[in-house]
UniProtKB/TrEMBL annotation:
Belongs to the beta sliding clamp family. It holds the Pfam family DNA_pol3_beta_2. The keyword DNA-binding applies. This is DNA polymerase III beta sliding clamp central domain-containing protein. The lineage of its organism: unclassified sequences, metagenomes, ecological metagenomes.
Amino acid sequence: MRILIKRDRLKDALASVIGVVDRKQTMPILGHVLLEESDKLLKFTATNLEVQISSITKVIEMDPFENIAVSGRKFYEIIRSLDSKEVELKSTKGMLVIKTNNSSYKISTLPGNDFPLFDASDTSETFKIKQEKLLSLFNKTHFSMAQQDVRFYLNGLLLETEPNKIKAIATDGHRLAASETSIEKKQINKTASIVPRKAILELIRLLDKKEEVRSEIGLNSIRFMFNDLSFITKLIDGKFPDYNRVIPTNTEINIQLNSHALKPSLQRVSILANEKFKGIRLETTGNSLDLSSVNPEQEEANETIPLQEKVKKIVVGFNVSYLIDA
C-alpha cells in the first residue's frame, strides 16, 4: 500500500469521522478508523456501533490495497500537527508508516475485515433539505434532549415527516422544545423517528450550511448524505410521548421580547440565583418585565426589560438555565 495525499484533505476527512471514535474502547476495534479504496478515492469510516460516519477524499497517488484499521485518535493527532503540504502513507507488516519530508511515524494497524460495519438498507422514505434549515431545526431543539435518562426514548430527538414539512421535538421531562420547517416533497408518508442524542450532536458539528442534505429513513436507521459524507445512525426503538397534549392551543397572555436583550439579562440575574435550583422570578408590571433572583446568602439581583405594550400582571418562576438554553 502506498498513498500520497494532501495533508489538509487528509486532516479534514479524519476530522469528519473522529467524533464517533470510541474513547472508552469497550472493543479495541472501535478506537480505530477503517481505511478503504473506493473508486480511486480514499474512504475513512468510524463507528461506535450506534453511529457510523464515512468520509471520502481525493488523493494524489494511490496503489490498490487491502482494507486496514488504524488507531483513530493517534492518526488524527499526528496528521493535525504536521506542517507538511503532502503526506505519504505506507502499510507494512501490520504497521502504518506516515512520512513527510522531514518526519516519519509508525502506528499499529488491525485487519480491515474485523471492522464492524452496518448499512441502512431498509429505506422507506427519502427527502432533501438545505443544510442551513436542518441545522437550524436541530439548534432550536437539541438542548431539551435528556441525557442518560432511564426513559431511553427521551435520550434523543424525535424527527417527524409529513407532506412538505419536517418537525423536530425534544424533551427531558422538565421542558420541551419543538420546531418545524418546510421541505419540497409533497409525496411523503408520515414518519416518526427517534434519533439518538450522540447522532444529533455530531450532525450539529458537521453540518456547515453548504450543500443540500439527502436523508433516507428506514425502519431501524436513518442516513444523512452531504459534503462527501455518509452519516448513518440507528434509531431508538420506543414510543415518544404525545407532545401535542402539553402544548397549549390557546394562550391568554402573549409577550414579545427581543432575545438579544433577554438572554444577557437572564445570564446576569442567574449569577446570584440559588446554585442548586437556579430559580428566577419573572413579573410583569405594566409595560415592563422584571427579572429577579435571590440566594441563601440573601444576595439579590434585579433587572427590568421594557415591553412593547402593556400586559396583564403575572408572576412566575423558572429554572434560568432552561430559559438561557432556549
